[in-house]
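Folded chain entry —
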Amino acid sequence: MRALEQANRVRLARAELKRQVAEGEATVAGIVLQCPWEAESMTIADLLMSQHRWGRSRCRRFLMSISMLETKTIGSMTERQRKELAERLSEGYNGAVAA
């Protein structure tokens, strides 16, 4: 029962986090840098796709540009990876592929 309660707590907290990102109340860069407990085991792709106009294709292109797997969890990222990801997002990644 405790495991189920914990799973529900995490699921609800993640849903709230994703809602905040979708509504512009929080940024993916900020979440990645802070790494709150509810985001630790969340995949980076899941968090990126909670942004407005970010689908699977845009997410894949972005992650390929920084050599990161979609299945990488936020909690398993190194400090360098977090900073690079946040920097790239704050630069205003627009989904274009570099020539």
Notes: The mean pLDDT is 91.
